[in-house]
Amino acid sequence: MKPFSSGELHIDVTALSATRFRFDWRGRSASRAPGVDLQPWLTNVIAEACATRAAIEMHFEALEYFNSSTVAVLVDFVRVACDKTVPLTLSYSADVRWQRLTFQALRVFSVAHHHVKVAPIAAA
């Protein structure tokens, strides 16, 4: 899986094993239409995860900001992961108010789908 970069948003990819990938989001996503670049990339992530039966870990702790347009793209990504039963973990900083509020709302997916986890990470 390849890293992503568009404007100020960068997503690094680390293969933790042959069947587990970590994606570290950093920078900012303030584009009015982030889905133009991000959506096809996320679609490819799901396709590769399905092909290799891999689990996906999305880490947002280092992300400075993302707007509601980016949240909409992320929600679509989570829905597709749910539909395809891809194991997915979304990790965020419990100490950053906007992250806590955003990801608490996304916990609805973890209630309805046992293979989706939304996990706060406290600062060390």
CATH architecture: 2-Layer Sandwich
Q: SSE order, as H and E?
A: EEEHEEHEHHE
Overall CATH class = Alpha Beta
Question: In CATH, what is the homologous superfamily?
Answer: STAS domain
Number of domains: 1
Strand content: 25-35%
As a percent range, the share of helical residues equals: 25-40%
> What is the CA-atom radius of gyration, in angstroms?
13 Å
- Counting H and I runs of at least 4 residues, what is the number of helices? 4
Distinctive features:
124 residues, alpha/beta, Transcription Regulator spoIIAA, 7-stranded mixed β-sheet, 7 strands, 40% helix, 35% strand, globular
What does this structure look like?
- This protein has 124 residues and is an alpha/beta fold.
- The protein has a single domain, classed as 2-Layer Sandwich (Transcription Regulator spoIIAA), CATH 3.30.750.24.
- It is 40% helix and 35% strand.
- The protein has helices at 35-52, 68-83, 97-106, 108-112, and strands spanning 4-6, 9-17, 20-29, 55-59, 63-66, 88-93, 116-121.
- Strands 1, 2, 3, 4, 5, 6 and 7 form a 7-stranded mixed sheet that branches.
- Helix 1 (35-52) packs parallel to helix 2.
- The longest helix has 18 residues, at 35-52.
- It is globular, with a radius of gyration of 13 Å.
